[in-house]
Amino acid sequence: MRISTNTIYAASTARMSEIQAGIVKTQQQISTGRRILSPSDDPIGAARALEITHSQAINTQFSANRQATINSLSIEEVVLQSSTSLLQDAKILAVSAGNGILSDADRKFMATELRGRLNDLLGQANSTDGTGNYLFGGFKSSSEPFSATATDAQYNGDQGQRFSQAATSRQIAISDAGDSVFQNIRNTGAQLTAAATINAGNGVASRVRADGSATVTNNDYDIKFTSATTYDVINKTLGTTVSSAQNYSDGMPIRFDGQELVITGTPASGDAFTVRTPKNQSVFATLSDLITALETPIVGAPGKADLQRSLTTANGNLDAALDNILTIRASVGSRLKELDSLNVSGDDKNVQFAEALQNIQDIDYNKAISDFTQQNTNLEAAQKTFIKISGLSLFNLL
Fold first, then answer.
1. Global confidence as pTM
2. Cα–Cα distance between 368 and 366 in angstroms, integer?
3. What topology does CATH give the domain 54-188+300-349?
4. Which residues contact 233 (CB under 8 A, 6 or more apart)?
């Protein structure tokens, strides 16, 4: 077969260019530490590396979510711990207030101290997470959840609970609604009075007080006026009539089952008033009721009985509030523990992703350096043979 001189030159040049391109590529692989410089180097490996990198980025985002959740829950735990301490102090004061040697002035001093605890507790309930979001506002995290009223605190948030995506299939609550922490607390005895909405008269009922004549049962009662001057008292809990056709006059105490209240004004025939023990009561109302009881001077045996009843109710409600907050704290602690476990799992996944990426796209330096040396040797050989072949000419024989 006859090969032209142009073909020899072209083939040699192409081969040397090919070897030089291989050397440049190997040099880039060594300098970057990557075996796959472009998808064409290993299409399957490049696709797998892209998938692993995507999973690694998602895992990193989960880690950031968990850290933000840990920060928020840690602040909530501190707030709940402070609230626990405040309620424990209030509990001590409530127990101390039962000491019979205390005077009205002594109890007023205690009430002043309790009012400070109440204000502190309200401040704790309006705490933020450090980024301006209120901890206990539910989904309404940008506005103050609690505002003080005369005898309680109004909840302005909602019942929503914000969640954070902590893992692929796990969401963890980042907050707790304020009503579940400070308001929806089991009531152990505080009773409320209310007039029926259909009342035609202008009678107004006072709060219920113990009169010391009998043990208070905290049953529910209805006071129904059969005329403008007579009334019946019905025990709604037991379904029995306590008294009937009792005479009424403006400001006269209405007594039943160890309790009394005063209705002022002029009720009409058919008017009704209720005495109910609500199922739940806020901790702010509990402290307000206790402050009112301590600020009220004791007058005779009924006054002592009313104070004792108020203190017993306050102690029970404070215990219920403490139990509720401790339950929330246990929930927060459980979530923090789970986040720690998820962090460990996430760190392990990051290590696995890094190892997988290393196996797919990182270069084997021993093999790369060996290939580089071999390619240089091939280039030198190609150059030397080209010199020899290019020197072959008939003119050298003439």
1. 0.73
2. 6
3. f41 fragment of flagellin, N-terminal domain (1.20.1330)
4. 221, 222, 223, 241, 242, 243, 244, 246, 254, 256
